[in-house]
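Subject: for your reference before the review

Hello V.,

The reviewers asked for a structural picture of the protein, and I figured it would be easier to keep everything in one thread rather than splitting it across files. Below is the amino acid sequence we used in the manuscript, unchanged from the supplementary table.
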Amino acid sequence: MVNYASVQVPNGIPSGVSAQLVLGTVKYSSGSLNPTLNIAVYSNSMYPVAGIPNVSIVTKNVSILSPGTNALVPLATINFSISGSPVNVREIPIKLSFGTSATTTDLYLYDGTTLIGSTTAHMGVDGTGTIIVQQANGGLPMSESGSYTIKANITGVASLQAGDSVSTQLGAAGNFLWDDIEGNITSGTGALIPSYDISNIAKVTN
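And here is what came back from the structure prediction:
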């Protein structure tokens, strides 16, 4: 039987720096002997932060598109939950998929009825774009959970065209940008968020 001592970092690990633990020796008992085995077992790399934003698109499939309209349509709800200290969300990548003739060029992020962000350039022909959170400080400070709505002006919905639809999901993790406020990190991406998941899809149809 091997008894492991608690692992401690004497002076702490600074935030914003990749770190790794290494198990170097194991001391064990064998009869009256207490030998030491020299090994090198490495942990997964860690990137300590003071806080992290967990983000997800709420899965849905609803029929709300109307033929010929160009009104703002709620495409998806995006949820945030904060682990640890407050963070600042700056950019949210979005991937859209269009069914048949429905289309849009811009996205908007709402907190209730208040516009807090939008795409600053039209969506790409491949359906990718980035919502820039346009608050006074260049982002959206968050210290607790919250839900926001992604909206767009949808065009090209035909009155007799079954299957017109728009599907919304998170874009590439590397394009989700956030700041760790207390950890003084301004280069956080979705790649540092273990729960970041691009598979959730919110779909609206006619």
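For the response letter, the relevant points are probably these. The chain has a mean pLDDT of 84. The radius of gyration is 23 Å.

Happy to draft the paragraph if you're swamped.

O.
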